[in-house]
Amino acid sequence: MRTGEEASRRTTAPGVGTSEHDGHEGTRHRVTRSIVDHGPSTAADLAERLELTPAGVRRHLDALVAEGVVEATEQRVYGRRSRGRPAKVFALTDAGRSGFHQEYDELAAEALGFVAEHLGDEAVTKFARERLAAREERYRPSVESAPPGERARALAEALSADGYAASARPAPGGEQLCQHHCPVAHVAERFPQLCEAEAEVFARLLGTHVQRLATIAHGDGVCTTHVPAVQAEPAGSSGRTNTEDKNPPRRGPSRPRESTDATPASGRTTS
Question: What is the pLDDT of residues 133-148, one digit of tens each?
Answer without folding.
Answer: 999 999 999 999 999 8
